[in-house]
Amino acid sequence: MRGVAAALALAAPLAALAGLAPRYGGELSVALAGAPADLDPARISDPAELEAARALHATLVEWGPGGALRPGLLASLPEAEPGARAFRLRLRPGLRFQDGRPVTAGDVAASLARLLAPQTRSLHGWIALPVAGAEEVREGRASALSGAQVLGELELRLVLDAPFPDFPAALAALPSAILARGSQGSGAGPFRLASRGPDGALRLTAFDGHFRGRAYADGVNVLGADGRRAARAVGRGEVDLVLRPEAAAGATTRDLPQVTATYAVVNARRLGPAGDLIRRAIFELDRPELGRLAGRGRVSPLAALLPPSLLPQGAPPAARPAARIADTPRVSLVVADANRALADRLQVKLFDRGVRVAVEAVSRSALAARLASGNYDLAVVSLTFTSGSAQPALLEVAWALGGPSAARRALQRLGGSEPATVASELAEEIGAVPLFASGLRASARPGLYGLEVLPDATVDLAELWLPPRRTAQEGAR
Amino acid sequence: MRAARVSRAGRAALAAALLLASPASAGDPPAPALARAADELASRLSEVARSPEPVALQVLAPGAEGLAGPLSAALSEALSRRGFAVALFAAATGPGAEEAARILGADRLLRVTAGLVPGRRELVLASEAVPTRASFFLQRAPEFRSGGARLWTVSVPADEATLLLARAGGRTGPTGPALWVRPLFRLEERVLAVAVGDAVGDGTTQLVLASPRSVSVVTLGGAVRARYVLDPDVPGPRRPAATVAVGAFGPGRIALGRAGSPSLLLDAAGGALLPVGTLPSVPLPGGERGALFGAFVPGKAVLADALSRTPDPVPPARSPREYAAFASAPRPGRFAHAWVTGDGVLELLGPGLDPVGAPVEGVGAGFALADLDGDGEPELVASTTDSGATDRIRVLRWPAGAGPAAPPVLVLESPPVPGSLLAGAAADVTGDGLDDAVVVSVLPGGGSELWLVTADPRFAEVR
Fold first, then answer.
1. Predicted-complex ipTM score
2. Which among A382, A461, B148, B463 has the fewest CB atoms less than 10 Å away?
3. Rounded to a whole number, what is the distance in Å from the CA of B303 to chain A's nearest CA?
């Protein structure tokens, strides 16, 4: 599946500048769909936070420009011991966090454990779930993972509960970024946070000690902007790059992989046989139409649990005429504020089929808590995948829609089945109906160089460089 | 009767045949290298031909036409000293030349092709001595025995006078000698830095190419003579950067600088490329005045504004400025070295490393300073800073006698070449005694193509 991600990786720069090597200096300005709300990589929940984490943090393994995995903070890719139940990790020597502290194997163990610790309120415990001792940490009975064995200052051995050959790909997901222990979230990414404005705008400065060398730009200003404001800013040359659902006029545009998937989740355990009927009714809805009406940006109907960039799939089954369901109870549909419009559409569509739905809009974190506890009848959930590979992405979706127990069962299944089979079984078990996948567009102003899109639909801002101040082609003539 | 047997070709050849009175033979002694080569060839002929014997002499020097006259004079003189009667041909080729030589009464035609060996300062005479009388019945003297055709090759080191004569016949244009751009070869690797010189210490010229993964000594034809594989996992900048220098570190020694790791001194004398030590600072091309050292800016793929003649551990930075590339002219004139900034601005330095002249804008990172025309002042071989997937090789010349702030004048611009020109170096690549430039185009697919810029007409056939 990594090959699929590799094929989708858009590595070629937008433009080449003959005769000039990449240039250092200058300040970049990047407009996102919204200012990143949470800068803790463990709580990434949307593309803006994912992009901020890409700039501020570093992971053990990375996606390279060609879409292949490469060592990040590690000196080499994790070596699997026979059976793929243990991996040996060795850090590059001389690594530093942005606060100057050295990056050690102890920081790696602590960063993995904090993904499961209740006080972190992490959305991405699935990354550390395979490691032995995960349950104890998740339940608050231990502060460290028993399977994370620190062998030395730079060396670590991770023992897993079940074989998971694609575990290195999970370590490339940005929520697994390594943080300095005891710090206020100091990372080892190419930029450090200089300031955060009242509107959530970020000012980042290049981190000289980044292990891949200093970023080309001296700094980056990251702001949230609506579509009209972003297009105006690009036109005036005030913004260099826009990552939003729609393309900005006058800019060079590139599609990013569709890594946000939207699902309807039916709690069959709570609704009983009616739940199955409601789920079938949602299956028979016109998903392309739903995507057109409620999705933003590039939207594709979804036929499987993972987006097509992570798992190839055919077209979803054709919509069927509405057939009324008799004797269904009134159900509540819990939804995050951002998906309110979609929930309203579903309410109407299900009413046509005899299902009376009350929509309850809640905060993003409240929705996550309701899903984890099973306290819902019907939910609409949008999930931004942080993993660029199918197997880890199945753990991610299982964790997000079905909670830790579903993720653990998915992990057991991944040991012996193909991802497509696991995806199908998992959708059935969770009661999920995939609706549509959506992706952003990168709009770069002419003259921005080094734009590379990674399989997780982020742009490595450290690779961007601005043209020379003077390109007097005629100067030497 | 004899005249009746002369064919049309023979008559044409005879009409073209002249007894030459070379200007060099009027009193000036020929260049010592020419005299030595001529003497060697004459002695070879005297071993197989009995003097006094009439010999028709034909000298050709394709691509180095200026050699033909003086070499004819030198050969005539050497053959005459050995008792041969010499008749010179100015122009006649093929069987017609032999027939014309026979009509002139010569028993033997000595045909000599002279030239300089590319990559070496070496004069080579390839000669054949052909009997002009193909059958016994055509013999002028019944006792003459030709013994068949003979082939000889004579090579001697070319001196400055010979190199100068070889260039004398070159084409010139309104802005000086004609310049040529031609491709050398392609590589699969991305070349970061190039140096030109005698890297293996055998008297020939090679290219030294530094890539992210290796350093290679490569012939002008693209054959790898030696390679040293580098450790790819060194902490460095986002894009790898390197410098490479030859010549100033002893025969067969190559100095390599890599951003983020210690500079290496490599030995290529034994046929393999082996590290023999490290250098405390980054080697830069220094030209004929010896080694120069600088420094990479930590964490970046750019050079600091630091220059030193000695390998100081930390060369003193002259300013906080940063540069994309540095180059030196093999033979300095008013300008000896130059930096180019990331913004494409060229800053010139004199032989004493002091700033001279006015900055030149629009110069890409792949550039070289080379005295291509031999006027004592280096020209600038530069790429463009245009946007696009192709680049152009340009040659700019500072007008003679103009003030230091005078801008250079464009004298050559190549058709588009694929990729981006990101490295360059200068040296006498063709062996004609003049500087040439080698520039490297990094191709969109990741490989590299090398280009030669020269005034040597032997390399004129492509562009």
1. 0.77
2. B148
3. 12
